[in-house]
Amino acid sequence: MGVVVDPHSGHEAMTGRLVIPSIGPNGIYQLKFRCIQMHDCKEIGHSKYLTDAHDNRLFNVRAIVEAQNVICITEGEIDAITLEQIGYKAVAAPGSNTWRKHHARMFAGFQRVYLFGDGDKAGRDFVKSVGETLPNAVRLTFDDGDDINQVYTRDGAGPILELMGITGAESNVYRE
Predict the structure, then answer these.
(1) Could you tell me if residue 56 is inside a domain?
(2) Would you place residue 13 in the very low, low, confident or very high pLDDT band (cuts 50, 70, 90)?
(3) Overall domain count for the chain
(4) Confidence class for position 173, pLDDT limits 50, 70, 90
(5) Quick one: 26 and 108 in the same domain?
(6) What's 134's domain CATH number?
(7) Which range of residues forms the domain containing residue 88?
(8) Are 110 and 127 within 8 A, CB to CB?
(9) pLDDT of residue 70
(10) Taking the model in full, what pTM does it have?
(11) What residues contact residue 68 under an 8 Å CB cut-off, 6+ apart?
């Protein structure tokens, strides 16, 4: 990850954005560019995210191969990165409406799939619709306005683990 300083010709709109690479077994398969300015992107009139791809693929698919019995699915890339930082393999469906039913096949062999939605209508809809395709899902949503990264930044890993129902020594059982 990094911030775009000197974009290629035709990509000037990416200047100043955080670039988030999606890396798979064969290298980078998609780049997303996130606005990192302290403003409401909708009020300014631009998208929070831009991408170089024509589709919205899952982010961090290598976690599916690396995880053993437990994996997490989040609504956004930054949240998946945050979960990885605290020791849990995580994939992101980048945006509340990017999940496709065929994605569920990749999670069929897991004992438990923690499914995280942001604390808003889109997050609750995400958990509901994705959860309907995953019989092994533990559906979790945050309080209004919160997401994984906000909670972690403000309060640390404890509240996230508590939401997952994981406490004390048990946290080492699920980490992979």
Answers:
(1) no
(2) confident
(3) 2
(4) very low
(5) no
(6) 3.40.1360.10
(7) 62-174
(8) no
(9) 95
(10) 0.82
(11) 176
Distance CA 119, CA 166 (A): 20
Read out DSSP for 112-138?
EEEEEE-SSHHHHHHHHHHHTT-TTEE
pLDDT at 147 over 70: yes
User: What single-letter amino acid sits at 143?
Assistant: D
Looking at the predicted structure, is the pLDDT value of residue 175 above 60?
Answer: no
The answer to whether the CB of 132 falls within 8 A of the CB of 103 is: no
| 109 and 47 assigned to the same domain | no
At 53-90, the pLDDT tens digits run 656 688 898 899 899 999 999 998 999 999 999 999 99
Contacts 24+ apart (CB under 8 A), 27-34: 29/57, 30/57, 30/59, 32/59, 32/77, 32/94, 33/4, 34/77, 34/78
Q: Are residues 75 and 130 in the same domain?
A: yes
Q: Do residues 116 and 168 share a domain? A: yes
Instruction: Give dist(CA 9, CA 31) in Å, integer.
Output: 16
